[in-house]
Amino acid sequence: xxxxxxxxxxxxxxxxxxxxxxxxxxxxxxxxxxxxxxxxxxxxxxxxxxxxxxxxxxxxxxxxxxxxxx
Length: 70
Description:
Layout (H helix, E strand, L loop, with lengths): L6 H6 L12 H21 L4 E5 L2 E5 L5 E3 L1
Antiparallel strand pairs: 1-2, 2-3
């Protein structure tokens, strides 16, 4: 069963410095770029892989650059 998080919690919990609804387009682009780097850094700092889909394949990427197909 998929857990649905209310939109209010997504916006009010975390380290957001500015509400995404009032960000300019340039700010949103920079925010999305930084978000990806922050997620990668956070996972690697806890010795966890970054897992994502690419070309229909699940991939686990590790801090040392190792890529494993799942």
